[in-house]
TrEMBL record:
Lineage of the species this protein comes from: Bacteria, Pseudomonadati, Bacteroidota, Flavobacteriia, Flavobacteriales
Family: Belongs to the monovalent cation:proton antiporter 2 (CPA2) transporter (TC 2.A.37) family.
Name the UniProt record assigns to this protein: Kef-type potassium/proton antiporter, CPA2 family
All residue ranges annotated as the RCK C-terminal domain in the record: 582-667
Keyword Transmembrane tagged: yes
Main location: membrane
Localization, UniProt: Membrane
Stored InterPro entries: Cation/H_exchanger_TM, Na+/solute_symporter_sf, NAD(P)-bd_dom_sf, RCK_C, RCK_C_sf, RCK_N
Length: 667
């Protein structure tokens, strides 16, 4: 049995692969590759797509997944904090664009109803492109990212009244008041349903699903929930995308949001490509070529007008100049809902076909420009802000900078120089306790629902997620972590985690707990810095107790234990440690460590004396690299540098010698 859409999928995605491979070599964004593939495969070029309607449906699914992921990354609390941006900012941007577009279009001879309708079309920006690019750049919670999101949410909502007003502009009034009242009642009903789902139903469902430990069931539940809420909002006249956004917001309140994001992302990447392809397929190449100069002039005009309105809107919201500039470089394009609305206007004869073709060309060009301008926005913004401006203007801008809204100061604190504990078993729990007592910032990752609940009850900073997924590691800011402890009982998963960590960080110190000695060498080859086998540690502990029964002095037992561990268990196995990267072998110094020692006791031979007279180098054979005294760091260590009680010494040397010095300073 032949499936027509399958042929279309193979053709357009295969064509996209070839184009994007070429574009990647010349460093052109992949979005443009999909647009070009759509243009080539569209009905106005080679007409390779026979099931255009089905392709449009696939593109709609892509937008659903995109907005779903955006919703997960926010929270209901954050959305409420953005109410001024959504209502005031969105209202000013949409209203201002409609007003100025109407004036300009009417001046150039279009009827008033057509001019107002063009204002509707140009007032909307591309939710799919802007949010995708901002999310990929990690700027969705940045001030300009939140501004863009707030305005786009308002645009998605205002599409519904625009749809209702379109027949009126065409002269077919109908009972508008009744329609609006019914719509308001439906929206209130949807709001109540969403609240009940978020508060009582969804957390319990996901809790039951997680307890089954079935990855397939978790993915299925996430996708079904996303589509169910999207279908619910669509049934009351709102957009599917807005419903998906609400679904994401609901899941964002649960403890399993990060893993849900990871599960949905592959679907989003596949389906969103169909959106860009379907947009490209709409372009009439013959019309575009014949009217290229006029189209380019109109593009410049539309971009300038939209930037002017967006900039004024964000400025009125009292954001600083940098946020104003970054925002206007994000929202200058024409959006996908404008394409949907334009079809309704064409059907109602509000705009002629020639105007519609101009609009399509402008839309596709502005969408194509978006990746370039968003990427270049920080540099352009910096250049503008550094440029000379009149002192009165600069003073006004600086005064606005002091009136930042809470939206700009509520960003969550990023993890930095922290400890990541993967696995909250006995070892993970003990490491977390030690880190808390030592005031070391840490975060825990686990997928077991029982241990996850236990950690939550202990008020631990734990995240539900699979560490074998690189996106989860990225969310934990693995690239900024100092130490990563992998304390799980799955050898295969452990190896994959080490490999994924090394994709993001070459400097993080990875400590791995394994069960058997045979796992040491492979883990070290993959990138682990230290591998601690349970069977060796058990052997050491048993032999320590044996030595105690033979009345061996305690300090000799400790020295024996330290010598075994410092030599990577070389006494117990032929496996030797090695650096995780062969090219760094010259940095690996066997049997040497860098540690910090606290000067606790007033040792007469060391405290109060200089480095030279204390005999640290001669008697203990270690090197003092730096000293922390109160809040100051002494990094230039000279022979006459004195050691004081309370200092923190950064020491380099043999572990046994370091232990001897520590005893001298501590007891």
């Amino acid at each position: 049995m032949e499936i027509p859409i399958l042929q279309d999928i193979v053709i357009i995605l295969g064509l996209s692969i070839l184009i994007i491979l070429l574009f990647q070599k010349i460093k052109v964004p992949s979005i443009l590759g999909f647009l070009l593939a759509g243009i080539i495969a569209g009905p106005h070029a080679f007409n390779l797509i026979s099931s255009s309607h089905e392709v449009e449906l696939l593109s709609e699914i892509g937008i659903i997944f995109l907005l779903f992921v955006i919703g997960i990354e926010l929270s209901i609390k954050e959305l409420i904090s953005m109410k001024n941006t959504v209502l005031i900012g969105g209202g000013l941007q949409v209203g201002g664009t409609i007003l100025f577009t109407t004036i300009v279009a009417y001046f150039f001879g279009l009827p008033l109803n057509s001019a107002v309708f063009l204002g509707f079309l140009f007032s909307l920006s591309s939710t799919a492109i802007v949010l995708k690019l901002i999310q990929e750049r990690g700027e969705i919670t940045a001030p300009h990212g939140r501004v863009a999101l707030g305005i786009l949410i308002f645009q998605d909502i205002i599409v519904v009244p625009m749809m209702l007003l379109t027949p009126i502009l065409a002269g077919d009034g109908g009972d508008l008041l009744t329609t609006l009242l019914i719509l308001i009642l439906k929206i209130v009903g949807v709001g109540v349903v969403i609240y009940l789902l978020a508060r009582y139903i969804v957390p319990r469902i996901f809790s039951m699903v997680v307890k089954t430990k079935s990855k397939e069931l978790f993915i299925l539940t996430t996708v079904v929930f996303c589509f169910a809420i999207a279908w619910l909002t669509s049934s009351v006249g709102l957009s599917l995308a807005l419903g998906a956004f609400f679904a994401g917001l609901i899941i964002s309140e649960s403890e399993y949001s990060h893993q849900a994001t990871v599960n949905v992302l592959p679907f989003r990447e596949i389906f969103i490509s169909f959106f860009f392809i379907s947009v490209g397929s709409l372009l009439n190449l013959e019309f575009f070529i014949n009217n290229i100069l006029m189209i380019l002039l109109l593009v410049i005009g539309v971009v300038f007008l939209k930037m002017l309105v967006v900039g004024a809107t964000v400025l009125l919201l009292k954001y600083p100049p940098r946020t104003v500039l970054l925002s206007l470089f994000s929202l200058f394009q024409v959006g996908e809902f404008s394409l949907l609305l334009s079809g309704v206007g064409l059907d109602n004869n509000i705009i002629p076909n020639s105007v519609y073709q101009y609009f399509l060309a402008i839309s596709i060009i502005t969408m194509g420009l978006t990746p370039f301008l968003i990427a270049a926005a920080p540099k352009i913004t910096y250049s503008i802000l550094k440029a000379r401006v009149p002192s009165s203007v600069r003073h006004r801008l600086e005064s606005l900078n002091k009136l930042k809204t809470t939206e700009e100061t509520d960003e969550p604190k990023k993890l930095d120089d922290h400890l990541i504990i993967i696995g909250y078993g006995i070892n993970g729990e003990n490491i977390a306790k030690a880190a808390r007592n030592a005031e070391i910032p840490y975060v825990i990752l686990d997928t077991d629902p029982v241990t996850f609940k236990k950690a939550k009850n202990n008020n631990e900073p734990i995240i539900f997620g699979d560490a074998t997924n690189s996106l989860i590691l990225k969310h934990l800011h693995v690239q900024e972590a100092r130490v990563i402890v992998i304390a799980i009982s799955d050898p295969g998963a452990t190896k994959k985690i080490i490999s994924n960590v090394r994709l993001y960080s070459k400097t993080a110190f990875i400590i791995v707990r394994t069960r058997y000695v045979r796992e040491i060498e492979e883990n070290i080859k993959l990138g682990a810095d230290e591998v601690i086998p349970e069977e060796f540690e058990t052997s050491i502990e048993i032999f320590n107790r044996v030595l105690k029964k033979y009345l061996v002095p305690y300090n000799e037992i400790m020295d024996f234990t330290a010598s075994i561990r410092s030599s990577d268990y070389e006494m117990l196995t032929s496996v030797k440690g090695r650096p995780h990267k062969p090219s760094l072998q010259h940095l690996h110094i066997p049997n040497r460590e860098i540690v910090t020692l606290s000067v606790q006791q007033n040792n007469r031979d060391i405290v109060g004396k200089s480095i030279q007279t204390s005999g640290i180098g001669k008697n203990f054979r270690v090197t003092v690299l730096a000293i922390k005294r109160d809040t100051q760091y002494i990094t230039e260590i000279l022979p006459d540098t004195k050691i004081k009680q309370g200092d923190l010494l950064y020491i380099f040397g043999n572990p046994l010698n370091i232990n001897r010095l520590n005893e001298a300073l501590s007891y």
